Structure formats: C-alpha cells, structure tokens
Amino acid sequence: MRVRENLHLCRILSENKSHDSSTYRDFQQALYELSYHVIKGNLKHEQASTVLTDISEFREDMPSILADVFCILDIETNCLEEKSKRDYFTQLVLSCLYLVSDTVLKERLDPETLESLGLIKQSQQFNQKSVKIKTKLFYKQQKFNLLREENEGYAKLIAELGQDLSGNITSDLILENIKSLIGCFNLDPNRVLDVILEVFECRPEHDDFFISLLESYMSMCEPQTLCHILGFKFKFYQ
C-alpha cells in the first residue's frame, strides 16, 4: 500500500470507534504499515508522529495498540542486517514517546531497545530486576504466619491435633493431613511446628503420639528449626 493511501486509511479507521475485532485488527495493521513506511525510509518519522498524534484524539486505546506495533517492529528490525532500518525504528519510537507511556513501553520492548531509547540505564540490570520481580510474583509461595491471616487453615490444624487420639489415629495419618493443610492454605511450616508444640503442651498425656509426630515432621524441616522455636519460647517465659 502506498504511503498516501495508508495515511488516509489510518485516519478513516481511527474515526471508526467500533470495538469489533475485525476493525481493531484492520486499525492495528494500518498502524503497522504506516510505521513500516518509516522504517523503509518512505516516510519521515516527524510526519508519522504527526499523523499518529491526530489519530490518538479519536482512539483511547491508541497507546496500547501502538505499543503492540512497536513490539512487533522491535523484533523484526532486530533480525535485519540493515542498520539504517533499525535506526529509523528508534527515531520513530523516540518521536512518539509522548503518545505511549514509559511503563507500557517497558512492558513490550526489548531491554536493549529501552536502553538505546534512554528509558532505562542498563539493560542487564533491568533484566535481572525483572526476573527477580517475576519470580517473587509468580513462583514464590506466599506463607501465612499469623493465625488471623489464615484462620480457617489454622483452625483446621488445631482441630486435627486436638481430636480424640484413641482408635486407629496414628501420627503418620495426622502428618499427611497436616501436609494437606499446609499446601491447601499456604500455612507457614514453622508456624505449624509452633502450633504442634503448643497443643503438645496442652496434651502431655499423649507424649508418645506427639514425639512421634514431631520426629516425622522434623524430617521436612531444617535441623535447627526446632531449636530456634524452643529457644524463642523459653526466652518468652523468662
């Protein structure tokens, strides 16, 4: 599509505020072709940014769509051997920074591109920080330490430990139930150990059961954990 035809199409589609998926894709494609004319050197980035500014008045979703287009072009121009096309892309993005927020661009563009645009200082540090944040958000298990933070889970734990221990109830069976509660309610294993000790104090007549339970439970914990918890309890009662 020629430059003039593409500019005309962009303006027409921008005035169509329909949320129809086909219209959205057509508008996205038109912005892509407009941007690619800049990369090929057929259109100056100043002219493109002027058109994009006019279009943004009609489309509230313009920043997000434009960021998606830049994301695709970022990948494509990174694979090209012609350095000039990469330079044209960088110039286009720089001229459109007032249309798309830094936050959105940081979500979509490559860290090295962000560094070349001056949006971040060092791409390597940005990558490391990004990995840490994602790990904390998606992979680090949240553990509830206070009873009030997960009262249902700890209530079930106390009920499990406080039940009648006669009959076929064994420490191995209770341990499996405790594991299920920890996994289901994200209970803090150290806090669970503390609760077991608290219930043990209230039911000393079942010492054989609780000693067996503690020995089995400690196989899942660090060796020094029990010492630390008992030490904290002794310090509390000084």
Automatic annotation (TrEMBL):
A single GO cellular-component term on record: THO complex part of transcription export complex
One of the GO BP terms on file: mRNA processing
Domain THO complex subunit 2 N-terminal: 17-215
Signal peptide start-end: none
Molecular function terms from GO: mRNA binding
Full protein name: THO complex subunit 2-like
Organism: Castor canadensis (American beaver)
Species classification: Eukaryota, Metazoa, Chordata, Craniata, Vertebrata
